[in-house]
Every structure is written in C-alpha cells, then in structure tokens.
Design goal:
Layout (H helix, E strand, L loop, with lengths): L1 E5 L5 H10 L5 E5 L11 H18 L3 E4 L2 H14 L4 E2 L5 H7 L4 E6 L1 H5 L1 H10 L4 E6 L3 H6 L6 H16 L4 E5 L7 H8 L4 E3 L2 H19 L11 E5 L4 H11 L7 E4 L4
Parallel strand pairs: 1-2, 1-3, 2-9, 3-4, 5-6, 5-7, 7-8, 9-10
Helix pairs in contact: 1-10, 2-3, 4-6, 8-9
Bound molecules: D-glutamic acid.
C-alpha cells in the first residue's frame, strides 16, 4: 500500500497522478486538516506532524510514503528518511524545468512561506538564478480557498490575480505551482494567464518517481505488487472532510463509490 500525505486536500492533486500511473495499487491518504495550513508554521511543528502521520501510515501497512506537500517536504523529508525504514518520495520544486524551458528568462514561483525557506528550494534557486529571473510569491489565502472548495469565482479570481498578474507583467512565461493545493485553481489561473505563460505542476513527475521507487523496492524485497485491476483508496482526515470527498469524486468519478473515509482523532 502507498501512503500519501498532505496538510489537507492539496495532496489529492498528486494522488490523482499516482492513481493514473499505478491504477492497481492501494492508496491510504491522510489529510491533516486540523493543522492546515502548514505554510506559515514553524518547521519544527511541521516535522512533528510529518512524523506522527508517517507512524500512522506505516502502522496501516504503507510500503512507501509520498509526501504530497511541498511545505512538509521542505521541512521534514530529511528527518523522515532518517527516522523510518521505508522510502519517502517528496515534492520537487519545479523551478528547474521552468528555468530550463523559459524563453523570456523570467519565471514566477507561487508557493508557501515554508517552501521558500526550504533547503531544496534554495539550492535549486542558487543553481538557476543566474540563468533566469525568479519572481517569488507566497500564495497567502489560496490554501484556505481550496480547503473550502472555492476553486473558481470572484474570490479565487481576485486572489489569484493579485499574485499572478505581477508575474505576467514582469514577463514571466512559466508559472510554477509550488504547493499541491494550487493545481486545483488551474482553471482560474489559466483564465488569467491565457497563452502568455505555461503553468508548471510537478505532480505527474513526482508520480512517475514514486512508481520507479516502488518498482525498485519490490524488486529488492521480492514482494509482489497487486494482481487486481483497480486499487481501492482509503482516506483519513484530522479535520473536516467535505471538500476532500467532493474532490475525490471529481477526480475518480464512480470509482469513488468503493472508497472509505475515516476521521482521525488519535494523532
Ligand atoms: N499542500 C501544501 C504544500 O504543497 C501545504 C500548504 C499549507 O498547508 O500551507 O505546500
């Protein structure tokens, strides 16, 4: 079973891609909504939450955990790998492909405060800041909108506009979505961006990486993957799960009928 974890519903944008490349696998998703958003919180707190969730997922039988949250990856992936005996796949800041493909030499990155402070991001920035101009923007309030299920409409237009418009005005031809909640705002972002910029979502690449890591793991341990055609997903939430259930159905359609939802009070 593959564990997937986020501060809330954002990681579903990664689960969507994981499901697409590994349709027979079982997934166990934890939304830590009681503590969302992670972005403005102290990294030590995010590490504590990541450890608690990882412990829970391993107890559920996770062979591999995908940290489907840029902020948690930035704060906790090193600690998680040092603490637990299973592999972890984290979110990669997609600044690299954006910088490599940019024609205008200007790239916009929308992420949380925690992600911008992370070593992974800062290392990538140091590598590419000579090549492109990087406009960083903390997407304050966007995670909260997505958690409420507000993906389109005047409120979303206004907040997305406030953050993305200045990037376009500065000539950005790539907008990197550095938080897994933001792909749910793609329609709103696309409306603003038109064909002036490419929206970069790292989730498909992360899903392919998870697939590679799982294949290597099974080869090493001799453990077989599932034989069935369609894996079942189970969802645990420490907070409200209305938006989660709505988005799961939007992504999975009728397959969502077989999925299970649980509230999680113990971690
Ligand atoms: N989905 C998150 C991320 O990728 C978490 C955002 C938050 O909780 O602030 O960073």
């Amino acid at each position: 079973m593959i564990g997937v974890y986020d501060s809330g519903v954002g990681g579903l944008s990664v689960w969507k891609e994981l499901r697409a490349v590994m349709p027979a696998e079982q997934f166990c998703y934890v939304s830590d909504g009681a503590y969302c958003p992670y972005g403005p919180k102290d990294p030590s707190f995010v590490i504590e939450r990541a450890q608690a969730v990882a412990r829970f997922l391993i107890a559920q039988g996770a062979e591999l955990i995908v940290v489907a949250c840029n902020t948690a990856t930035a704060a906790a992936i090193t600690t998680l790998r040092a603490t637990f005996p299973i592999p972890f796949v984290g979110m990669e800041p997609a600044l690299k492909p954006a910088a490599l493909h940019s024609q205008s030499g200007v790239v916009g990155v929308l992420a949380t405060a925690g992600t911008f402070k992370g070593r992974l991001y800062l290392n990538t920035l140091a590598r590419f800041s000579g090549r492109v101009k990087v406009i960083e923007q903390v997407g304050t309030g966007l995670v909260e909108l997505v958690e409420q299920g507000i993906l389109e409409g005047p409120e979303a237009d206004q907040l997305v506009g406030r953050y993305v418009q200045p990037m376009l005005e500065a000539g950005a031809d790539h907008i990197v979505l550095g938080c897994t909640h933001y792909p749910f705002l793609t329609a709103t972002i696309e409306k603003l961006v038109g064909n002036h910029a490419v929206i970069v979502n790292p989730a498909p690449a992360v899903a392919r990486q998870a697939q590679r890591v799982l294949a290597e793991l099974r080869e090493r341990t001799g453990k077989k993957g599932p034989a069935g055609v369609s894996g079942v997903s189970t969802f645990f939430s420490t907070g409200p799960d209305e938006t989660l259930q709505k988005l799961v159905r939007q992504i999975a359609g009728d397959a969502a009928d077989g999925y299970l939802y649980h509230s999680l009070y113990i971690i």
